[in-house]
Amino acid sequence: MDSFNFKTYGTKNSWLGLVLVIFVIIIIYLVLRSLYKLLFVLAPVFVILSLLLDYRVIVKFGIVIYELLRYKTLWGIIAVIFSIVGFPFLSAALFFNSFMNFRTKKRDKKTYTDYTYVEDTDDEVEVLDLNSKEKVKIDSYEDLFE
Predict the structure, then answer these.
(1) Both ends of the chain: CA-CA distance in Å?
(2) CA 56, 57, 60, 61 torsion-angle sign
(3) What's the rounded Cα separation, in Å, for the pair 143 and 137?
(4) Is 97 within 8 Å of 55 (Cβ atoms)?
(5) Dihedral of the CA atoms 103, 104, 106, 109 (nearest 10)?
(6) Residue 54: CB partners within 8 Å, gap ≥ 6?
(7) Nearest 5 degrees, angle CA 106-CA 92-CA 66?
(8) How far apart are CA 42 and CA 58, in angstroms?
(9) For the chain, which has fewer Cβ within 10 Å, the N-terminal or C-terminal residue?
(10) How far are the Cα atoms of 47, 62, 120, 130, 133 from residue 95, in angstroms, in the given order?
C-alpha cells in the first residue's frame, strides 16, 4: 500500500494560520457587538422616524409576523425570537425601508410642463408602394443572393 508523504514546513505555519483565523473572528465579533450597542441606543429613534415617514412598513411587518404565527407556527415563533434579539438591526432595516418608500413617493409626484403644439408643415412624405414586385435595395447585402 502506498503512503503519501506530505511536505510540511514546520508546525509554526499551521499555528500561525489558526491564530490568524481566531484573531479575525474576534475582530468581527467586537465590530458586531459595538454596532449592536450603537443600534440599540438608536433603535427607538429609528422606530419613531419610521412611523413618521411611512407607518405602513411597520404594519406590513406586523402582518407578516401574524401570518407566520397563524399558518406556520414554528417559523413564526422563530421570527418573533429573532425580532426580539435583533431588534436594533430590525429597527434600522424598517427605518431604511420606510425612508426609501418616502423618497420614492416624493420623487413620483408628477409635474407636467406646458407645451406648444407644432404643426407638421412638410407634406412631401415618400410612401413606399407595398404592392410593387420590385425589391428596394437597402444595402449591398442583397447583392450576395443574386
Answers:
(1) 74
(2) negative
(3) 9
(4) no
(5) 170
(6) 97, 98, 101, 102, 105
(7) 95
(8) 17
(9) N
(10) 7, 14, 52, 61, 67
CA distance 70 to 93: 24
Q: Tell me if 36 sits within 8 A of 88, measured CB to CB.
A: yes
* Nine cell digits for residue 37: 450597542
- The residue assigned the cell 431588534 is 87
Residue 18 — very low, low, confident or very high, per pLDDT cuts 50/70/90?
confident
Average pLDDT of the segment spanning 68-83: 94
Q: Which residues contact 49 (CB under 8 A, 6 or more apart)?
A: 95, 98, 99
Check: pTM over 0.90? Answer yes or no: no
Q: Which of 125, 124, 137, 39 is nearest to 88 (CA)?
A: 39
| Amino acid found at 77 | I
pLDDT digits (tens, 9 = 90+) for 89-134: 999 999 999 999 988 877 766 777 777 787 766 666 666 666 766 6
Q: Average pLDDT in the 74-88 region?
A: 94
